[in-house]
Design brief:
This protein has 12 helices and no strands. The protein is 81% helix and 0% strand.
Length: 307
């Protein structure tokens, strides 16, 4: 009985962490669009640098020891590929947002939960309830219709979906504490980020970071680049906490909050087109989500009765 209540609390905490994470990620286009005049490579470099700084400060305050995770081969086997994959995912996403592909990026994060469900089923033997199966079918139909109607193969969407799905699976399999894992991942990519930032500044002859300290716009850009660290770190820590507490299938369905917000921002804030394909996809996905919510509510009530 006590174990069942603890599991319910664990799942509830993980669900709330996942929901908070995906709401923040859904609002990301508003933040990165403010850096639209900055080279995408420079943005991703500073994102890694300041995310590293944020994670290290958090670990120091909480007296955590992140580099103990690299004391064995298992740590390297999980955290090295995770670091490279998430850095690549960040770069593709920022490039997409700043080049007018917010809607395609949103499509990627609509597809990603299906990737998470597939990985959860194959790699972790996670079982789907009948209502979750209905949700998968509805979401698959919506995403398939949207992809076919898009007019060309949305390579950015699929690259984002697959890369983040694999990242989530690695995080779940590793099971490492979120703060320490994030610090290690950014430590691994830090030398690459610093080297790339220097190279870009040398090749282009310009840099946005402290590039024009005589103007308000220059200082604003510098501050935004620095704040990109905590803006990145906080939802990633929430994601790691959620991935460790709830099944990948559940986490995948919660993720639909993020692309829905991104789609709304892309259409109503940035003026990207909203077609019949968008409407059909949106309707199918939220219909599927209604089944997931109903299923979660029924299981929660069953757990309460059992307790």
């Amino acid at each position: 009985m006590a174990a069942g209540q603890a599991d319910m609390r664990e799942e509830r905490t993980g669900t709330l962490a996942g929901l908070a994470c995906y709401i923040l990620w859904g609002l990301f286009p508003l933040y990165w669009k403010m850096l639209v005049d900055v080279n995408s490579i420079e943005i991703i470099c500073h994102r890694i640098i300041w995310c590293f700084a944020t994670a290290i400060v958090v670990c120091a305050v909480l007296r955590l020891h992140p580099y103990r995770l690299l004391n064995n081969r298992r740590g390297w086997a999980h955290l090295l590929p995770a670091a490279l994959i998430i850095a690549t995912n960040w770069g593709m996403y920022i490039w997409g947002v700043n080049n007018g592909y917010v809607v395609e990026a949103a499509l990627g994060y609509y597809i990603n939960p299906l990737v998470s469900v597939l990985i959860g089923r194959v790699a972790f033997k996670e079982r789907l309830t009948p209502m979750q199966c209905i949700a998968v079918v509805l979401c698959t139909l919506g995403v398939t219709y949207f992809t076919v109607s898009y007019g060309r193969f949305p390579w950015l969407a699929f690259a984002l979906a697959i890369s983040f799905g694999v990242y989530g699976a690695i995080k779940k399999h590793g099971g490492y504490p979120s703060f320490e894992a994030l610090a290690v991942e950014n430590t691994i990519t830090l030398p690459i980020a610093i080297g790339l930032a220097i190279t870009v500044a040398h090749v282009t002859g310009t840099h946005a970071f402290f590039g024009d300290v005589s103007s308000v716009a220059g200082w604003k850009t510098t501050v935004l680049l620095i704040l990109g660290g905590p803006v990145t770190a906080i939802p990633l820590m929430l994601f790691s906490a959620a991935a460790n507490k709830i099944p990948l299938a559940s986490l995948g369905f919660i993720q639909y909050v993020s692309p829905s917000l991104q789609l709304i921002i892309g259409v109503f804030v940035f003026g990207e087109p909203f077609t019949l394909a968008h409407a059909v996809c949106f309707a199918c996905i939220w219909a599927g989500l209604s089944f997931v919510v109903a299923d979660a509510a029924l299981r929660y009530r069953a757990g309460l009765r059992a307790s």
